[in-house]
Every structure is written in structure tokens, then in C-alpha cells.
């Protein structure tokens, strides 16, 4: 009998544990903010200088820039980045200021700071190829705001569960009823850290996933580290309330001229699918994909599908040259409702 070597177990993304991680990690500065950057795709090799007579050809492959949501980090895109790496697609994901390993936000309005940061990422990537922005939740908002800025070299946007249109009762409560926040902050004794973390471990999967039973334990632990104690939780709640207030005047959608794909999720407990439908009506040339089986963070629910969606959309945006609406994947018509 000849013994054969057992294959290494596969991790969730389909990559075996013995294979090297294709995600390259670095730290860079955008708009003066030092942050962590995840990158996949062929490494960038500096081309030799050409004369004016024979200028260098501009690269045509799309560059995907992935932006995460509030109280999240670039780690949320890791499963999608691995899928994109397997297809040779160039993409970067960054920690937004105030989250992950990025430097904190400064006092004052949050959205202008985040806009400046996102613009810095876009301009850096645009040197390497046509930029397609994709954002989830707050990242979806920043992607839309970048598309409103006609001076930014963005050729297409995918907005996933962007808030500020038709939000859930939970988001509306944070914005309009500060009483629960005041009561929490005024407790005579701070809630012990282990209690805060235990509650977060139960709440986070229910808010972010379509089915909390399928939540990845590592991703849940990552989210709960954002709420280590009573003081940190209070700060995050205050920050969330400020952000929701700023969303009231966040959009000038008549300025969006590039192809836009709106993704709405039927099991989203934070931003209802009605929000995606409203955004679609406000940007007439946009395309809408409704997935009834996805939650607030579909990049965690279904990384392969999100990676395929982004790949097809980016290819269409490049063909369109950023001047007219790009057709989404075959599965997504002007409005496609799918159960999975």
C-alpha cells in the first residue's frame, strides 16, 4: 500500500492553508493620514521612461479601490481580495481614517476628512490604470461622493448598502433620538468590559450577516475589538450619531455621471433594500441589483459572488470609458431581484 500525502485543509476563501496569502500589506499616506493598505494583482513595475516621440502606453486594466463601512476595516475585504487575486484582478483596500490601523480622525466634520482621504487613494491608483470605486455602507457613501467630484479620475462606482436614503429604525434612532445614548453614558457605574464584549459578540453577527449562524468567528472577533470597554463604546456611539447627522446633506446625485451599480440587500438590518431602490431612482442611468439573500456586508456573506460582480462591472466601465452607463453582469438587469 502506498500512502499519499493528505492535501492541506482549505480555508474559507478556497485557498489551502499551505498556500501563501496573495494579499500584500503596506503602510502609506493619503491626505496626510497614515494607513494600512491591502493590495492584490500583478505587482507594479516601474516602466522605463519614454521619449516624447514614443510616449509610454497607459495601462488599460481596471484598478478596483475597495472602501469599508463604519466601525470596520480593510480586513472585511480580505475574502474578496483573495478571489480577485486568483483572477489576476488588481485591487486595493484601505483602512479609512479612524478605523483599523489608520490614524484617527481629527475633531470636526467627518465626511470632508474621509473625502480627502478617498480622493488621495483614487489619484494614486489612477496613475496605474482606470479606477473603479466599490464601497460598502459608509464606503458606499464615500464612493458616491467621489463620483460627485468630477475632478476625480473615477470611471465607475459600485455602491453597496449606502446609508442616508431609507434607513432602518436602528439607524434612525441613532440620529434622531439621543436618549438611549445619554442614558448609557449616564450610568452610575461603567458597564464592565467583559459584558460589553459579550453583548457585541451576540449583536455583531446579527447586524452584519444575512444569517448570524454562518458568521466567521475571526471576523466577529475583529469587530468586537472595536468595543473593548464602556468608554470606547460610548465614543463609537457618539461618532455614529455625528456621522448619521452628516448624511442628511451628503449627496448631490445629479453630479454623478459615471456608470453606477447600486447593490441592495434583502436581509440588511441597517440599510433596507428600499434605500437602494431609492438611490437607483435618483440616479436615472444607474443599474440596480437586489439580492434578497445578502445582509449588510455581502462581502462577508458571499465573497465569490461579490468578486465576480466587481470584475464584470469594472470591465464594463473600462469599455464604456466612464462616459456612459456600463452594463452590469448578465445576472443584473435594470432591476434584478434574486434569492441566491
N- and C-termini, Cα separation? 45 Å
Contiguous uncertain segments of 5+ residues = 1-11, 179-189, 322-334
CATH homology superfamily of the domain at 24-40 and 60-177 and 249-338: Alpha/Beta hydrolase fold, catalytic domain
Strand arrangement, largest sheet?
1-2-4-3-5-6-7-8-9
How helical, in percent, are the residues? 25-40%
Shape: globular
Number of helices: 11
Report the β-strand fraction as a percent range.
15-25%
CATH class of the domain at 24-40 and 60-177 and 249-338: Alpha Beta
Rounded average pLDDT: 80
The biggest beta sheet reads: 9 strands, mixed
Order of helices and strands: EEEHEHEHEHHHHHEHEHHE
CATH hierarchy: architecture of the domain at 24-40 and 60-177 and 249-338? 3-Layer(aba) Sandwich
How many E strands? Answer: 9
CATH topology of the domain at 24-40 and 60-177 and 249-338: Rossmann fold
Radius of gyration: 20 Å
Structural class: alpha/beta
Q: Could you walk me through the main structural features you see in this protein, from its secondary elements to its overall organization?
A:
The model is unreliable at 1-11, 179-189 and 322-334 (pLDDT under 50). It is globular and about 50 Å long. A nine-stranded mixed sheet has the order 1-2-4-3-5-6-7-8-9, with helices on both faces. The chain has a domain at 24-40 and 60-177 and 249-338: Rossmann fold. It is α/β, with parallel strands linked by helices and 340 residues long. Strand 5 (131-136), helix 3 (138-148) and strand 6 (154-160) form a beta-alpha-beta unit. It has helices at 78-86, 111-126, 138-148, 169-176, 179-185, 193-208, 217-224, 230-246, 273-282, 298-301, 303-320; strands at residues 24-30, 33-40, 63-67, 90-94, 131-136, 154-160, 260-265, 287-291, 335-338.
Amino acid at each position: 500500500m502506498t500512502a499519499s500525502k493528505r492535501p492541506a485543509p482549505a480555508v474559507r476563501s478556497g485557498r489551502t492553508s499551505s498556500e501563501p496569502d496573495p494579499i500584500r500589506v503596506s503602510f502609506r499616506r493619503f491626505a496626510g493620514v497614515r494607513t494600512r493598505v491591502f493590495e492584490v494583482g500583478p505587482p507594479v513595475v516601474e516602466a522605463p521612461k519614454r521619449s516624447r516621440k514614443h510616449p509610454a502606453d497607459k495601462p488599460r486594466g481596471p484598478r478596483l479601490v475597495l472602501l469599508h463601512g463604519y466601525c470596520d476595516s480593510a480586513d472585511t475585504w480580505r475574502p474578496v481580495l483573495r478571489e480577485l487575486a486568483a483572477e489576476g484582478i488588481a485591487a486595493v483596500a484601505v483602512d479609512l481614517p479612524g478605523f483599523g490601523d489608520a490614524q484617527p480622525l481629527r475633531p470636526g466634520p467627518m465626511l470632508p476628512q474621509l473625502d480627502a482621504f478617498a480622493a488621495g487613494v483614487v489619484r494614486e491608483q489612477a496613475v496605474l490604470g482606470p479606477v473603479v470605486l466599490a464601497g460598502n455602507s459608509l464606503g458606499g457613501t464615500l464612493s458616491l461622493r467621489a463620483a460627485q467630484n468630477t475632478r476625480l479620475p473615477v470611471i465607475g462606482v459600485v455602491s453597496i448598502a449606502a446609508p442616508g436614503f431609507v434607513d432602518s429604525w436602528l439607524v434612525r434612532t441613532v440620529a434622531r433620538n439621543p436618549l438611549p445614548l445619554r442614558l448609557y453614558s449616564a450610568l452610575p457605574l461603567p458597564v464592565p468590559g467583559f459584558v460589553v464584549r459579550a453583548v457585541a459578540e451576540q449583536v455583531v453577527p446579527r447586524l452584519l450577516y444575512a444569517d448570524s449562524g454562518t458568521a466567521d468567528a475571526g471576523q466577529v472577533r475583529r469587530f468586537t475589538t472595536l468595543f473593548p470597554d464602556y468608554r470606547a463604546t460610548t465614543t463609537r456611539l457618539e461618532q455614529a450619531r455625528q456621522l448619521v447627522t452628516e448624511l442628511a446633506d451628503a449627496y448631490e446625485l445629479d453630479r454623478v455621471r459615471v456608470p453606477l451599480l447600486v447593490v441592495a440587500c434583502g436581509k440588511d438590518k441597517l440599510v433596507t433594500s428600499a434605500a437602494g431602490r431609492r438611490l437607483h431612482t435618483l440616479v436615472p442611468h444607474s443599474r440596480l441589483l437586489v439580492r434578497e439573500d445578502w445582509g449588510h456586508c455581502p462581502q462577508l456573506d458571499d465573497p465569490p459572488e461579490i468578486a465576480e460582480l466587481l470584475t464584470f462591472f469594472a470591465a464594463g466601465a473600462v469599455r464604456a470609458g466612464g462616459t456612459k452607463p456600463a452594463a452590469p453582469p448578465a445576472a443584473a438587469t435594470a432591476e434584478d431581484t434574486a434569492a441566491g
